[in-house]
From TrEMBL:
One MF annotation (Gene Ontology) recorded for this entry: phosphotransferase activity, for other substituted phosphate groups
GO aspect biological process, one term: phospholipid biosynthetic process
Record-given protein name: CDP-alcohol phosphatidyltransferase family protein
Region: Disordered, residue numbers: 1-21
Residues annotated as transmembrane: 41-69, 111-130, 136-154, 277-295
Family matches, as Gene3D superfamilies: 1.20.120.1760
GO terms for cellular component: membrane
Keywords, comma-separated and alphabetical: Membrane, Transmembrane, Transmembrane helix
Pfam family, one: CDP-OH_P_transf
Signal peptide: none
Amino acid sequence: METLTKDTQAPQASAFQSSLKSSDTEERIDIWFYRPIGYQIALFCAKIGITPNAVTIISIFFGVAAGILFYYQELWINVIGMLSLVFANSLDSADGQLARLTNNKSRLGRILDGLAGDFWFIAIHVAICLRSQNEGWSALIWVPGVVAGLSHIVQSAMADYYRNVHLFFIKGTSGSELDNSRDLQKEYDALSWSNHFFPKLVARNYLNYTKLQESFSPNLQKLLGVVRERFQNGLPEWLITDFRAMNKPLMKYTNIVQFNTRVLFLFLWLFIDQAWIYFLFDIFVLNPILIYMCVSQEKVSRHFYHKLTA
């Protein structure tokens, strides 16, 4: 009986692992909480035929609803918003896991996935600004609200980019979602506004997003240029091993500036009815972490660029 149980559990564990990107880039809260929930949602969606993009769109409604519920000062309403945001992030986890389980990955899915988080936090920032004004703050509260929002966009963009760079070096193109503006520009130029309005609009926004990521990582761009030129048939084992060893410690910073850390503190300040502190946390705590993350990644990239070109 014990053998049968183990035999049953092994394929399930293997399927769960295959739904993850990489243990290097996964945060512990995600592994323990969001990924198991997302996996069950992904299995259910695969069974009834719901696509990953549909799951992403559903997550937008729950995330935006959470932001709206944070406008109110009643704690019980805020708690419902917290649960809604947690469920939105579970769906956000599920869409990627579903895409990997069903081999239904697409660039549009990646773009929607990024936009989903932006919609959530736009709603949250607007709600906190309006809530603060109701509490007696002047319209100047919108200044840190907007600055924190722009900071969040850059933080999330760079964290996502560095994760995909790490996956590119340890798994290759099949295991990462790493794009570059040169190829995206060609695809954008091939589309016409008259015949492909929506695809061209999406391509324009994604091109701008990728250029933003590349502008913060000049040494990394030089390294990727050399790697793509020299190793078109796959990276050498020494480069995979050495890059992983040096770059893996930086992955914890990509997790800090994304969802879990900021949301835990957001919930704390909602509980004590001081939601405005979230803006200061974003600007004065997460931005320094972003800077350290970018500087450290550039040092790693410069090291391997010199090693490859020496």
